Amino acid sequence: MVSILVPVSEQKILQCSATHLSGIVYDPEGLEVNTIWQLDGEAIGTQLESDIPALQPGMHELKFIGIDMESHQAETTLNFEVLADVDCDKMGDIWEQMQDFSSANPLDALEDADDDGLSNRDEYWWKLDPHNPDCDGDGIPDGEEVNQGTDPFVPNLELIFLPLIMR
Ligand SMILES: [Ca+2]
Ligand SMILES: [Ca+2]
Ligand SMILES: [Ca+2]
Ligand SMILES: [Ca+2]
Fold first, then answer.
1. Is the pTM of this model over 0.70?
2. Neighbour order of strands in the sheet with 19-25
3. Whole-number pLDDT of residue 4
4. Number of folded domains in the chain?
5. How far does the centroid of ligand 2 lie from the alpha carbon of residue 57, in Å?
6. For 80-119, what is the HEC assignment?
């Protein structure tokens, strides 16, 4: 039996970052099992844990094969997607274009377009709106919410209702 733990099926990985692979094998007879990773039809490794260098954007097919000493074979396949990030700033091209950032300039990742204490890159990571400093409209800036561990998508009701009750 073989199984791929990482990546998961349909996972989206940004261009420029290495892709980590992790798999497990189990042989009911307890025989030693040799493993092979195949990416888009080409053998790329034999270890259970492995890193592969940055890949071209697009869909990729990953296959994990186990072969025991008696040549019994098992395999599993999944697809994952590499999202274009031409300037390697860890913000995907499509999102950068949508947000009016430059997909050819990595420096904009460190800027804070809405001045809420979160860099544009962190906004991408949190799936927030980099042009709205308070996505849930509760008066606490997104950056402060992330730092304090409150959810920037869910208004803090106490803050909204407390002043009303106090009246
Ligand atoms: Ca980018
Ligand atoms: Ca950029
Ligand atoms: Ca920001
Ligand atoms: Ca907020």
1. yes
2. 2-6, 19-25, 49-52
3. 98
4. 2
5. 16
6. EEEECCCCCCCCCHHHHHHCCCCCCCHHHHCCCCCCCCCC
List the alpha helices (DSSP H) in the chain.
Answer: 93-98, 120-126, 142-148, 157-166
Residue appearing with tokens 């940055």: 54
Domain hosting 142: range is 93-166
* Centre of ligand 3 from the C-alpha of residue 121, in Å: 8
Question: Cβ(39)–Cβ(52) under 8 Å?
Answer: yes
Same domain? 7 vs 77: yes
Q: Over the stretch 96-121, which tens digit does the pLDDT of each residue have?
A: 999 999 999 999 999 999 999 999 99
What is the CA(30)–ligand 3 centre distance, in A?
54
Residues 6+ apart with CB under 8 A from 75: 2, 63, 64, 65, 66
